[in-house]
């Protein structure tokens, strides 16, 4: 059973936003977008500093809307959210030791979306390293170890996590050696997630129940984004705000997010607070070369959801 309640008001608003998006961006096919929208009605159970126990939080009903929210889609760097939570679980359980390098890598993975930092994080999580191809026996052991993050999420018992695959590093040029072999000949083992799975994971972080209250708050600190253009870096290809959901917000909004992009996809997952409005989670994935290049589609979608939430 999905973690949110479907609602006629949100269905009408969400479907209207999708129709407006397709009318404005004819390159975006109906099977090239997926999204999940979670609205927090009063009393708001999230971003409270962990005021609710996990049982109280998960028993608190929330409303949501989803379109193609169960479709498996390549997540690009949004997958780093899964590694962020997993590392904190490992640290909490004593399965990994903290260090300056781990702290630096976590920050760079989320704040800057560094693929090199993510490589270290995946190595720490799995006890594996990249390198040349391996003989069959050692490679089978290596592959089993690399699936440890998948086993962790499946152990949570969340329906949304049963179809995802989160075992691969993120790359600039692509995988080589044992990493390429691990992808499979037809790339059948690449990372795949759903917008519903991302929304539930972000819901747990914002709710203060991902791993622990303190660790959830530390994760929120890494996810916090400034939407002030003067604060955005100018020396990167993508800053995770421009051309993403943050670009569609009003200047007084607060944003916590993780974006992902390649030549084929442009995604964002965000928790958003607007003054005097209901806070909400919005996860929006788009696919296709033309759509991945567009810096207008996700901001347009975000603007429409700002208008929708302001109409309540």
Give the strand tally: 7
The CATH C-level name is: Alpha Beta
What would you call the shape? globular
Low-pLDDT windows of residues = none
Strand order of the largest sheet: 1-3-2-7-6-5-4
What order do the helices and strands come in, and which of them pair?
Blueprint (H helix, E strand, L loop, with lengths): L4 E2 L1 H17 L8 E7 L14 H5 L4 E5 L12 H13 L7 H12 L3 H12 L9 H11 L1 H8 L22 H6 L11 H12 L6 H11 E2 L28 E8 L3 E9 L6 E8 L1 H5 L3 H14 L2
Parallel strand pairs: 1-3
Antiparallel strand pairs: 2-3, 2-7, 4-5, 5-6, 6-7
Question: Can you describe this structure?
Answer:
The relative contact order is 0.18. This protein has a single domain (about 5-310), classed as Beta-lactamase (3-Layer(aba) Sandwich), CATH 3.40.710.10. The chain contains twelve helices and seven strands. It starts with a strand and ends with a helix. A seven-stranded mixed beta sheet has the order 1-3-2-7-6-5-4, with helices on both faces. It is of the alpha+beta class and about 300 residues long. Helix content is about 40%, strand content about 15%.
């Amino acid at each position: 059973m999905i973690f949110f309640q479907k609602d006629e008001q949100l269905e009408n608003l969400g479907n209207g936003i999708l129709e407006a998006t397709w009318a404005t961006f004819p390159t975006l096919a109906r099977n090239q977008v997926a999204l999940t929208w979670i609205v927090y009605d009063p009393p708001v159970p999230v971003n409270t500093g962990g005021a609710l126990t996990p049982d109280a939080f998960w028993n608190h009903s929330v409303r949501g809307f989803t379109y193609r929210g169960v479709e498996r889609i390549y997540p690009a760097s949004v997958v780093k959210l899964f590694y962020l939570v997993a590392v904190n679980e490992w640290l909490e359980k004593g399965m990994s030791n903290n260090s300056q390098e781990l702290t630096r890598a976590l920050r760079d993975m989320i704040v800057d979306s560094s693929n090199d930092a993510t490589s270290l994080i995946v190595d720490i999580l799995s006890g594996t390293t990249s390198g040349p191809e391996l003989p069959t026996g050692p490679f089978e052991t290596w592959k089993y170890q690399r699936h440890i993050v998948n086993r962790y999420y499946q152990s949570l018992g969340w329906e949304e996590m049963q179809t995802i695959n989160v075992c691969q590093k993120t790359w600039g040029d692509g995988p080589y050696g044992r990493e390429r072999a691990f992808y499979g000949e037809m790339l059948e083992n690449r990372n795949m997630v759903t917008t519903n799975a991302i929304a539930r994971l972000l819901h747990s972080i914002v709710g203060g129940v991902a791993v622990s209250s303190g660790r959830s708050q530390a994760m929120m600190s890494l996810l916090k984004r400034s939407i002030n253009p003067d604060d955005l870096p100018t020396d990167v290809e993508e800053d995770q705000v421009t051309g993403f959901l943050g670009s569609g917000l009003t200047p007084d909004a607060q944003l916590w997010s993780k974006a992902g992009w390649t030549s084929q996809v442009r995604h964002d997952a965000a928790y958003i607070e607007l003054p005097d409005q209901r806070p909400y989670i919005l996860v929006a994935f788009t696919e296709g070369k033309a759509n991945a290049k567009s810096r207008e589609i996700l901001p347009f979608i975000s603007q429409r959801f700002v208008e929708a939430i302001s109409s309540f």
